[in-house]
Amino acid sequence: MRWTGRGALGLPVLLVVFGVDMGTLSRAAESGFTPDGNLERKQVPDRYKWNLQPLFADDAAFERGLADQAAARARLKGFAGRLGDPKALADCLDLYFETRLLTNRLSLYGNLRRVTDESAPDGQRLRDRGLAALNDLTGDAGFIRIEVVGLSDAAVSAAYAKEPRLAAYRPYLDEFRRRKSRVLGAEAERVLALAGDNLWAEIDLNEIPSDFEKAYDGIRGGLTLPTIKDEENRPVPLNLSNYGKYRASVDRRVRREAVAGLFGALRGEQEALAGTLAGQMRLDVFMARARGYDAALDAYMDKENVSTAVYRNLLGALHDNVKPLHDYLGLRREVMGLSDLHLYDLYTPLVPAQRKTYTYADAQRI
What are the residues whose beta carbons fall under 8 Å from the beta carbon of 299, sequence distance 6 or more? Predict the structure, then answer.
């Protein structure tokens, strides 16, 4: 299954899922290994890395999963034109959700293989192949929504009465029919799927990176960050792992150098990022208008069955209640004894704190 509620899983559950043994964590201090944001991934012992074997044993098993998914998609196409038969509809949905579960494992494995080492080309290749499998399933299964929304209300009611297995799929089918006016003809749906349409993606869109996000991730992973000096004036290479630490430094020079180092490097890529973002925005607007929406906001809120009024009310509530935030920032500036407040001043503690470090065993007990 796919996790769309990222806060729903506690740390112990995540550790078990990814194969990190709590006992292993408690033995970290005994092993002599000291976590360090400057380490290359290959320098970190395997026992402290994610174990993706619950998804696929290795990359070869992932490849076999891709082949199995392609075969299942071929079988799924055999149901096209037959979904007026309640039994065929139930059989089709059984196969579809079985294939979708496999597809979710493929895309999750690919995503996690990439984020474990963003500089490794294999990870990006596997991530893209997993996402391609997801896109292929969305396209190949497009006939399901076309045929389901084409059924009359009487035919749908009769199908529920005749085939008990369909009861489990009723919320899924009803959601199709809620947006029936947004479903186009078979050829138009095929073309939109080829263009990367995600308005019918049955997954949290945060799990499907846009081309802009892919470009940003690629640029970020290849950024050359400067060397800064820490609180003791020692040179340290800035990287994405230790950035948060130095951004929160009690030494204003250190945190200023950290923020300036990262944002300065990103500024050097601003033309590429701006151009890619503009292209992504045009694509989103195209997808929305192709389905008859006035704006991309309307389309993506309707995908979640949420009124745009909710979104606009949220923005209005924020704008109407921004004074407490301004008061807090003023208090922070006063407490820190600063004449002005910058981004790099927002993360350091307001009260004196004793710097403490914890072993894995200590963290486990806490």
Answer: 199, 284, 287, 288, 291, 293
